[in-house]
Amino acid sequence: MSTDWPPTRGETVTEYGPAPRRRRRLRVMVYVVCVALLASGALGGYRMLKGSADARRAEQLAQHVARAERQMHAFATAWANEDWTTAARHTDSPEAAASLLESVDRNLDPSALTITVGDGVAERADEDDGVVVVPFTVRMTVPRVGGFAYSSKARLVPAAEGPLVAFDPSVVHPELGAGQTLAVAKVQERGAILDRTGAELVASSLVGEVQDGRGVSGLQKRYDETLRGSAPPYAVAVTDRQSGKAVKPLLQSDVRPGRDVRTTIDPDVQRAAAAALDVAATPASLVAIKPSNGDILAVANQPGGGFNRALVGTYPPGSTFKVVTAAALLETGLQPSDALECPRFAWVDGYRFTNQDEFTLPAGSTFQDAFAHSCNTAFIEARDRLDEDTLAETAAAFGIGGEWDTGVGTYDGSVPVNVSDVDKAAAMIGQGRNLASPLVMASVAATVKSGRFVQPRLVPDAVDRPHQAPRDLDPEVLRALRSMMRAVVTEGSGDALRGLPGRPHAKTGTAEYGDEQPPRTHAWMIGYQQDDDLAWAVLVEDGSSGGTDAGAVAAEFLRQLATR
User: Fold this and answer.
1) pLDDT at 13 over 90
2) Could you give the CA distance from residue 151 to residue 165 in angstroms, rounded to a whole number?
3) Which DSSP helix (H) or strand (E) runs through 422?
4) How many Å apart are CA 478 and CA 453, to the nearest integer?
5) Which of 18, 272, 309, 503 has the fewest CB atoms lying closer than 10 Å?
């Protein structure tokens, strides 16, 4: 039997299984291909149908956005043409829209008003009849202001008659809220100098003067840039429609109005200081400090004017410096109860030092007695206990001679290293090359009160690096100084304060200056209140006696404070 396939002509063929099976497979393959072709055609048709539906929806969305844009163009055109009624008809709140648009136009009286409408965007891409957001830019020229431009946007919502502008005040300007409009307002050209309560400071010699819009003295000059700012005189402002009060100026981002400068001045203490200076017959100053944190509570000068002697005056401190000298002597071991003679004269290298009116103290007087009665000769006779640099080093512990960052210009004192015996003798009693301002000497009293030097400050926000004393005073020294300063009031030259409330502690001083013979003098008194967080210094130029002239001012100051 032949096994060839297909059979040769003339042979007898017997049908085998494989051949018929092959034909069936072929038919199955044809069926599969047909089904696949049918499925492919159906899918293509589905895609064509879906693509056609998406295209129709996209077209409908585009038409809806275009209708909203046309409505926005109509609204903007009527607005720019000052046709409030027509503009309002393109909104969903015609009465409110017409009222606000008319109010803004009346207040600003703009010229060259143009409104540029941008391309709208559907708020939801899957809605072809929903909300459309259309941005726009307004440009105008406003009298007293000049060019004014801003960008805003409107939401157009579906309505029976077609899209309408959903009106609220922010459509007219994005900063506007309910009950507000736009108007031209005067921008605060210059900030104010404020006291610690936020009220405008009343202290002419401290505040200074302004000329032609610029500070020329005092704090007005120092903080001129802050106070003046860079804002124009007038600006468009968000304004309350009922009161007409400007709520917020609409300034460029690089423009800022003048800012206030807040000080530490206490208005009650300042008033008391100013009233106390009326007692002085010659130019005088008074400075008050809060010892706990260095806040300057009062700066008063009589007369006022450009020269602020309380802060920048340069004076020999006289016997008020004996607080520093006493601290140096106490640190050598001298005790307040130790004997210290007070002769009429003290001779140093041929130079004669005396006490005021050449007074003396009786035999057996102590260091505290010499301090309380301000005996020059006793202190000078004790000079050998100190080295040439001791007074300078002790003064530094009181902050004297450092660079004070107070927020205002100040003279911070000078106590040089002694270069001779006469120089040291003069320095012991606050004469010679020792110099201070009333602020420095008020700080000396504050240091005794608080127990450490705390640098004074007037404008806290401007103080970056307050001066730190190189060391603190010994607690035992401070206790002795407090006792001795109280003795000045209870039994010594500070009797003008005797009986006043607050248990005042003080030190008097009469400082010689100039080349006249006899020398002219300034009168000093410094002190602090035991029962209050307060220290102070009084200087009376050309005063004859610290206890009498400066004492009268200090007493009046404390009486004024007691009645506040």
Assistant:
1) no
2) 16
3) helix 421-428
4) 12
5) 18
